[in-house]
Design a protein that fits this description.
This protein is α+β, with helices and mostly antiparallel strands. A hairpin with a 2-residue loop joins strand 1 and strand 2. It starts with a helix and ends with a strand.
Length: about 120
């Protein structure tokens, strides 16, 4: 108990948020499962892995990265991610970010599903 409390206090001092968030790793989810459960996952942090199939950098102060992992059909096989980071087409990446549904940026840019403010890590 004392060790857990000490770690929680240190995590708080370092600005790492709550101890439970610090201790729990975000679970990996497939692109198809994310499409299927998007309403339940809205606002939650998720982790996805896959291949970058399209990149549009520097749009509205962010980069738009499309990732596919081989799951889903033509309506649920592509996931759009926004990030300050970027990647190259063909990269295998791990992405962690917040699920957003029905995001409308205006000017015809509307997305039924996005993972926003994502961290993108190229897998080696």
């Amino acid at each position: 108990m004392r060790t857990t409390l000490t770690i929680a206090v240190i995590a708080g001092i370092l600005g790492l948020g709550s101890f439970s968030a610090f201790a729990d790793e975000v679970k990996l989810i497939s692109v198809a499962a994310l499409h299927q459960d998007k309403a339940a996952l809205a606002g939650k942090e998720v982790r996805v892995q896959g291949k970058v199939v399209k990149v549009n950098n520097g749009i509205m102060g962010r980069n738009f990265i499309h990732v596919q992992d081989g799951s889903g059909d033509q309506n649920s096989n592509d996931l759009t991610i926004t990030s300050k980071q970027t990647a190259n087409v063909g990269d295998q990446v791990s992405v962690t970010g917040r699920v957003v549904v029905n995001r409308d940026f205006g000017s015809g840019y509307s997305y039924p599903l996005l993972v926003e403010e994502a961290s993108v890590t190229a897998k080696k």
